[in-house]
Recover the amino acids of this structure.
């Protein structure tokens, strides 16, 4: 038996972290059961830790030694099997700490602009450079003319690190070679409180003799435009600045300081995240001038503790001519990313690319679907590249922009057949962990669409869409987190995003609708922060991740923030509108009828604007009261797991009273009376009513879905739970008919219309071909979670597998696999037409057991291996 897939905090060989006591984990291969393990760790070739033989089936160990700045720890594991026979040592893995103390930083913040340029989307990139020399092994200097920043001497490095961050975005080059393969660095964050820096191993890029470093800076999230209204510019500052420290064996060799030179006359003349770029390849940086020293300090600097954003899949497009005679490249997949091209051209020839998600009803190119309703010029999202060629061969790829697109409009005076176009999908470097296929092609496409909307919206943080807003909406993530945890290893990305949520949490405990901040703090933002169902993500997301990844660290990190949120919600509930006091009676103190709430959001055939107005004017207590009860109970459960008994009792009592208040709202006549499916789904999913009441609610929900012609009418909050509420209470047939419905509103309507991502609204392209709203919004892809936990029946909670499939002949067969942190579990079933029965095949990974609840079979617990049933 051997340990494989060694990871630190669910990342492979992270470089530059500041996580206190990181979790080391592995999975077992080549045996049935791990009975013991031994973990050995070394630094600089010397063992610094050995656990000895520990009798345990746990495939993880918490690192408890205090970390040191720059420390690289190599670690390996060996296992004992069920016969107490030791296996071979695993391959080594490592983790490396970054600069853990502010005093480790010797570099100075430098601003390359002579004076800050304030006009958004009209600013050139800045080019910075510095040089340094290494010393020969015999101690003789190759070049004595070292800049001030490179006075510290070094040798040809065995280990060289570049620690770097920026106000804006950066690309760094050492001796003409790009440093690393991460893009959009340093990422997006609550910059004034948390500015991430990256650590790169640049040992192979440094040479004896003269060395040169060049860094290009663009606006990025720091001072570019983004957000719901796309009007926020200079959000975190008007400067664009760089902090970089190059070290060899722990000693600074090159620092950002006053010796660096800067220029704004390079090729990139304008840049913006969704604005795009204007690049003149004929230009080269000149007019070099001094930089300005800035005193921004180091207090907000943190390691990223996250996987990088990278270029992933690459697509070659197909050239089409639209009815209007326009040349358009169809890359065949809606994505977030950008287009690169190669072309031989004459100096001054021009290329214009515009990126869009869809063609309009007439087959012409459009970007109108994701524009702001107020089509003033400053609010438009251009997604445009303008490139001026140099003489000869031109190779272009955007540096500081990312777009949501499948199509690219091409306007050029160069014959299009001379171009080689490629689209690059760009997202966080997450491994896919969930795989699903069945005998129904549209459902397989739905799964594909869900994966691609996750890829299109997980670039450093989870966002709602890659075009119009690019906002880290809390409600969207809370609705999708379970599905996301099945589909991809998203723990590092969501852990980082939760740091931003906590940083943006209001002093009164209200949780923001969006984190990190990406537009100016307006009166509306202040009003909308604290929306129920959205703010509750501060509990829902870490609790879900804890169940999938089997760690309580994520609960500990977010416990105080969740507690502050629940306390805020309780205080808000105590302030009842006078008009409602009599109606709520003794339950008024725990009925939430004040504050701004998005509510169920985007229900079909419901005016969201009208709902918001009514909520503000009259109060709409059903959703916020439900989530007050749910988050209070969640907090109580987490408190119990963390050993906080006083909090467990306190919030359990609050939850009980809030559930009673909810019951008072919804059961005035002894039953729920509503034509909206969400009103039945919510109390079932959030455990707000008794088991008998859940059965009655599920029965009524089933009748309502049938009445709606097997169409859904839920919105963002309840759609993830709709099919589960039905199948859990015996209405599996109805749940499958909902899944397979292909007229709007339904999941498969978009598939029938040719979608390859999940849409923001159920009819993003209507029956007449009119395109509206975002066509890449991951939230409604949460149906994929039901494909895993109910159709295939794979469930996991704290290291325990339960397999309880709910098959239906309509899919023919299903095969789902989930690469969990404990190993890969597979659940398959098929309908045997000849025998008239279902056949099941379940594969359990080494060192794990699974409880099987198969239709027509007694519950049984099985160990690792493949198990077949009929």
């Amino acid at each position: 038996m051997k340990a494989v897939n060694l990871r630190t905090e669910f990342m492979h060989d992270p470089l530059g972290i500041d996580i206190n006591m990181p979790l080391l984990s592995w999975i077992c291969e080549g045996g049935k059961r791990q009975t013991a393990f031994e973990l050995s760790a070394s630094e600089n070739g010397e063992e610094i830790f050995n656990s000895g033989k520990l009798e345990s089936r746990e495939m993880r160990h918490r690192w408890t030694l205090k970390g040191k700045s720059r420390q690289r720890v190599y670690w390996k594991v060996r296992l004992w099997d069920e016969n107490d026979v030791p296996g071979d040592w695993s391959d080594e893995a490592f983790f490396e700490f970054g600069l853990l103390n502010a005093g480790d930083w010797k570099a100075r913040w430098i601003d390359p602009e002579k004076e800050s340029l304030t006009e958004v989307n009209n600013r050139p990139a800045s080019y910075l450079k510095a040089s340094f020399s290494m010393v020969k092994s015999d101690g003789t200097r190759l070049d004595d003319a070292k800049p001030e920043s490179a006075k510290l001497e070094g040798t040809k490095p065995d280990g060289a690190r570049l620690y770097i961050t920026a106000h804006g975005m950066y690309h760094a080059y050492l001796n003409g070679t790009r440093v690393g393969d991460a893009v959009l660095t340093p990422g997006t964050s609550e910059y004034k409180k948390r500015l991430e820096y990256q650590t790169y191993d640049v040992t192979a890029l440094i040479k004896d003799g003269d060395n040169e470093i060049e860094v290009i800076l663009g606006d990025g999230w720091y001072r570019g435009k983004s957000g719901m209204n796309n009007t926020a510019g200079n959000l975190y500052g008007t400067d664009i600045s760089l902090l970089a420290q190059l070290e060899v064996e722990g000693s600074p060799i090159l620092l950002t300081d006053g010796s660096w030179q800067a220029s704004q006359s390079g090729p990139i003349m304008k840049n913006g995240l969704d604005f795009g770029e204007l690049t003149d390849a004929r230009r080269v940086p000149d007019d070099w001038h001094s930089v300005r020293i800035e005193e921004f300090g180091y207090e907000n600097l943190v390691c990223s503790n996250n996987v990088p954003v990278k270029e992933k899949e690459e697509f070659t497009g197909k050239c089409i001519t639209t009815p209007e005679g326009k040349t358009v490249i169809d890359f065949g997949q809606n994505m977030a990313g950008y287009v690169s091209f190669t072309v031989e051209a004459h100096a001054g020839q021009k290329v214009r690319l515009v990126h869009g998600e869809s063609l309009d009803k007439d087959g012409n190119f459009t970007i109108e679907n994701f524009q702001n309703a107020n089509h003033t010029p400053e609010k438009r999202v251009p997604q445009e590249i303008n490139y001026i060629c140099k003489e000869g061969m031109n190779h272009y790829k955007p540096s500081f922009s990312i777009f949501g697109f499948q199509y690219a409009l091409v306007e050029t005076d160069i014959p299009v057949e001379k171009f080689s176009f490629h689209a690059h999908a760009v997202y966080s470097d997450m491994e896919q962990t969930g795989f699903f296929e069945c005998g129904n092609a549209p459902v397989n496409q739905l799964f594909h669409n869900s994966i691609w909307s996750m890829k299109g919206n997980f670039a450093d943080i989870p966002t709602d869409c890659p075009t119009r807003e690019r906002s880290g909406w809390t409600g969207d993530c809370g609705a999708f987190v379970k599905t996301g945890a099945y589909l991809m290893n998203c723990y590092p990305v969501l852990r980082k995003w939760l740091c931003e949520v906590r940083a943006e949490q209001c002093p009164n405990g209200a949780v923001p609708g969006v984190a990190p901040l990406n537009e100016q703090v307006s009166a509306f933002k202040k009003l909308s922060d604290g929306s129920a169902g959205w703010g509750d993500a501060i509990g829902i997301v870490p609790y879900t991740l804890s169940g999938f990844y089997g760690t309580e660290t994520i609960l500990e990190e977010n416990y105080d923030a969740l507690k502050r949120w629940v306390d805020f919600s309780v205080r808000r509930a105590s302030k009842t509108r006078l008009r409602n006091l009599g109606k709520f009676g003794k339950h008024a103190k725990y009925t939430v009828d004040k504050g701004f709430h998005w509510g169920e959001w985007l229900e079909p055939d419901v005016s969201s604007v009208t709902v918001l107005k009514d909520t503000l004017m009259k109060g709409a207590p059903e959703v916020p009261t439900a989530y007050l009860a749910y988050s209070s109970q969640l907090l109580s459960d987490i408190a119990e797991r963390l050993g906080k008994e006083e909090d467990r009792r306190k919030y359990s009592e609050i939850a009980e009273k809030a559930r009673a208040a909810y019951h008072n709202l919804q059961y005035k006549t002894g039953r729920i009376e509503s034509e909206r499916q969400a009103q039945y789904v919510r109390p079932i999913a959030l455990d707000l009513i008794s088991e008998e009441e859940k059965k009655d609610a599920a029965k009524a929900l089933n009748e309502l879905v049938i009445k709606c012609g097997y169409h859904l009418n839920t919105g963002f909050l309840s759609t993830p739970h709709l099919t589960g509420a039905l199948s859990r209470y015996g209405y599996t047939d109805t749940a499958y008919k909902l899944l397979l419905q292909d007229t709007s509103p339904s999941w498969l309507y978009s598939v029938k219309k040719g979608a390859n991502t999940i849409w923001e609204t159920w009819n993003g392209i209507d029956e007449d071909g009119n395109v509206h709203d975002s066509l890449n919004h991951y939230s409604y892809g949460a149906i994929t979670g039901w494909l895993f936990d109910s159709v295939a029946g794979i469930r996991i909670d704290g290291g325990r597998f339960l397999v309880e499939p709910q098959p239906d002949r309509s899919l023919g067969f299903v095969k789902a696999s989930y690469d969990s942190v404990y190993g890969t579990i597979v659940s398959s079933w098929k309908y045997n037409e000849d025998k008239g029965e279902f056949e099941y095949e379940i594969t359990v990974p080494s060192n794990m057991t699974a409880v099987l609840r198969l239709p027509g079979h007694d519950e049984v617990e099985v160990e690792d291996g493949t198990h077949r049933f009929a």
